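Q: what sequence does this backbone want?
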């Protein structure tokens, strides 16, 4: 609604774009809408895109299913929810078809992320890991670099003694 007030004050479109930090194209489009329909034409129409096809109750059920993990729903090979799996789960549980990208947006809305899956180890023996680190790792790891001064350059460091006597700056230092 700030745009409508500024247009009513006679502010030019480029100045409006600068003040409201929007593109010039947006300012010109808003001005045209304002001229044709007044303040009401600039009112927000809500979020873009299609509405969620799952009811709030179904969203709660989906979140509970996701919390149970993939193994509880037939994916036993790993403990990762992918967007494709979530789309399949929605189809199975709610008989609604979701695309992979739609399932990704839905997961994000519910607080899950298919990009950074939470991998849960099904069987983990901390004692065996500790024994392996102490016994095997010490034998197989390669020795590190010596603790002496190193350079990131592949060439050797320049020395003032190597510089030609007639080079610029040779007499300095």
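A:
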């Amino acid at each position: 609604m700030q745009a409508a007030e500024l247009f009513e004050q006679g502010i030019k479109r480029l100045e409006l774009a600068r003040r409201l930090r929007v593109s010039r194209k947006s300012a010109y489009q808003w001005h045209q809408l304002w001229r044709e329909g007044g303040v009401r034409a600039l009112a927000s129409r809500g979020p873009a895109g299609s509405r969620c096809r799952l009811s709030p109750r179904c969203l709660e059920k989906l979140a509970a299913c996701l919390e149970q993990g993939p193994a509880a729903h037939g994916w036993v090979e790993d403990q990762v929810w992918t967007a494709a799996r979530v789309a399949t789960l929605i189809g199975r549980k709610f008989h609604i078809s979701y695309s992979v990208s739609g399932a990704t947006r839905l997961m994000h809305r519910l607080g899950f992320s298919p990009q950074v899956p939470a991998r849960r180890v099904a069987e983990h023996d901390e004692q065996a890991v500790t024994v392996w680190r102490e016994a095997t790792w010490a034998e197989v790891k390669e020795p590190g670099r010596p603790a002496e001064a190193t350079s990131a350059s592949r060439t050797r460091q320049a020395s003032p003694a190597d510089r030609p006597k007639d080079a610029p700056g040779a007499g300095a230092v």
